[in-house]
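If you are new to this repository, start here. Below is one unmodified record pulled from the training split, so you can see the exact layout before writing a loader.
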Amino acid sequence: MNKQVKNCYESIAAQAGLAVDPTCSVIHGKRDGFDVTLFAPNTSYPYMLQIQVSALRPAGVLTNDELRELRRAHKSIRAVRQKGSVLAVSLKQSMWPKKVAENAVASVGLVLAFLRTHGFYNACQMCGKPGQADGCVVGGEVMNLCPACYALVQQGKQMESEKLANTRENVPAGIVGALLGSLAGVVCIIVLSQLGYISVISGLVMALCALKGYELLGGKLTKVGATVTFVLMLIMTYVGDRIDWAIVIARELGWGFGESFLSVGDLMQMGALDAGAYWGNLVLLYVFLIVGAVPIMLGSLRKRRAATVAYHLGDGVQPRV
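And here is the target side for that same chain:
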């Protein structure tokens, strides 16, 4: 979280009577009898916030008319969704931090006032028990749980953490999985290139499939596995580009695929194949691979670390796996 976003979140918290968790950038606290959380579901868009409250009432969930009423309560409200006891109010994004804070503070007040006037009470989103339902993060998901349910999920996450720690990473098998997964990226490179495109999509496909392949066969994904997988992606991108050129050569010269694949270097030396076009195409593929794959790899490592963690918002230190 950069300084500008941090200042914006702290401004929202100060005006709304809430606090900012230092580990996950979630604004949280108790206000008007409700435990409320405010956060960006997609951290790439820190100013696209969502208000989340766990609340119930004897009359049941909000009706469609009530959902529309709440959505129209403030111009900054983009969407309103309710699943069980969890009410999620998505706010519109603004490029101005001051406007983001202003809209967020106003919307929090309106949402809580709406719940009170419509007979809702604060409740645990797991068991539905009325009363205390503190904000917490469970497996990377923001939740509002009573002490008993929190203790239960924390115990479950601790068991998952111990199981993961005792799972041995099988690097050779993981390499096979990553290699098989990266073939999807190779196919994507070839298909898009034959259609006349060079796209970041090929990097995304290769990263997703290679990482998943490594994890499935390797047992778990660690920094070592991610590094090995990235090296394999670099190699397979080169192979995919070479196959693409071989297909073009085979089609234009009427040669067999194997002969065309092996002759790429010779044709460049002879000047029959434009070396600038060849290397330029490969560089673009690597750029798109990095742009598409690196965020996915870093995100995957963070998600896998967070998947076995549960902690209360405001604890100050996020437990590590």
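Two things worth knowing about this chain: The longest strand covers residues 50-56. The chain has two domains: 3-162, 171-305.
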